[in-house]
Amino acid sequence: MVSVKSLLLATMATAAYAAPRCVKSMPAPPKTGGTKELADPAPGLVLKKIALGYGIQNYTCADESSTSVSASGAVAVLYDVTAYHPATAKTGLTKPEWEKLPESALRSASFPLNKLPGSEYNADPAQPFPAPPEDMATFSGGPGLLKFLGHHYFDATGTPMFDLSAVGLKASVVKLDGVEAPKDAYEGPMGTGAVAWLQLVESKMGLSKGLSEVYRVITAGGAPEACSVAGKGDQSVPYATFYYFY
Ligand SMILES: *[C@@H]1O[C@H](CO)[C@@H](O)[C@H](O)[C@H]1NC(C)=O
User: Residue span of the signal peptide, if any (predicted)?
Assistant: First the structure.
């Protein structure tokens, strides 16, 4: 079996060869084009994987007159899209196709979580993820079947976790910075807007494996409904995004 490392090295060598005038052979996270941008990853870090994440963002309202919605977690399935990055020779998508992938998935791919009976987007708290893990079937605007990479969830301490179980990588993270998604980002099926782009860094809780930084970029959907609309209690809002793992 070919190791992940040698595969990545091969991919990067190919990408560098295909773009000889490009100084950076490893893709940096994309920029929003807004007034403030996320900083690049720390020097020396290597891009290990890019995932398409599809799932829900959770929020809570203390009551319906509350002006602030608080974020309470997220659950998403991660699919490996590393080979579809535009810098990859042969398998890379065009830049517009790539940038539309989270939106296309959110519009057209089937919801990847086990739903609570009768709900549209609520995941089953007892078992949100289908078992055994499923690949994402071909969807309109997508490059074909997407391989299962892992799970994103919040652990018992409320810390975001990315468990890339298919390749043995893990990231337990805290938020370092966030910037608004571009105005033209897809607002999602609930019409609430796209969640912020984030730079997440290793939590120093000793739970990560082989990863130090995670970027959430090119977000689609996931922003909350106002408490006046959602009412008191929890809401789950569907979203899709790219996660870049360093
Ligand atoms: C998010 O809400 C869903 C219900 O839609 C629930 O199953 C899940 O446990 C919640 N997860 C977190 C981390 O808040």
Answer: 1-18
Domain extents in the chain: 4-245
User: What distance in angstroms lies between residue 4's CA and the mean position of ligand 1's atoms?
Assistant: 32
Instruction: Evaluate: CB of 56 within 6 angstroms of ligand 1.
Output: yes
pLDDT score for 24:
44
Q: Which pTM value belongs to this model? A: 0.89
Q: Is 58 in the pocket of ligand 1 (CB under 6 A)?
A: yes
